[in-house]
Specification:
136 residues; alpha+beta; two-stranded parallel sheet; two-stranded antiparallel ribbon; 5 helices; 43% helix
């Protein structure tokens, strides 16, 4: 079983405490914290001390994907919009024959677009920061 989890902390000691509680709570129920999949994203901090995980430091990153959305130091909205457009291209292109077909009414094509392309494109959009660039 895989579980995605985020720990938020205001300072280094709080993060160490949360990591420790997670390790001791997860182990008895058979959950293991995967060292290579554990990432640390530091925001608004000068502290660069490593977050140890079973004797090894967790990897520091500038951005990562969490539940299909990009999380970054800058908020991730611009990166997430670009990634969502890329992900929506595939279902759009897969329906190429439908778009060209004269056998389907425009209303049917729009319903297919909304259910298969728009849903992929707009997944997670409720958390995006809106600015002029992302709206375009």
């Amino acid at each position: 079983m895989a579980v995605d989890l985020t720990l938020l902390s205001h300072n280094y000691n709080q993060m160490l405490e949360k990591r420790s509680v997670l390790e001791t709570t997860a182990q008895p129920v058979g959950l293991d914290i995967h060292k290579r999949k554990t990432k640390v994203l530091r925001m608004n901090t000068a502290n660069t001390n490593p977050i140890p995980l079973r004797g090894e430091p967790a990897e520091d990153v500038d951005s990562f994907t969490y539940l299909g959305s990009i999380v970054s130091k800058t908020g991730g909205t611009d990166e997430d919009v670009k990634a969502r457009i890329q992900k929506a291209r595939n279902p759009f292109l897969m329906m190429k024959n439908i778009w060209k077909s004269r056998n389907f009414r425009l209303q049917t094509k729009l319903r297919l677009f909304n259910s298969n392309v728009s849903s992929v494109l707009l997944y997670g959009s409720e958390t995006w920061r809106t600015n002029k660039r992302s709206i375009r």
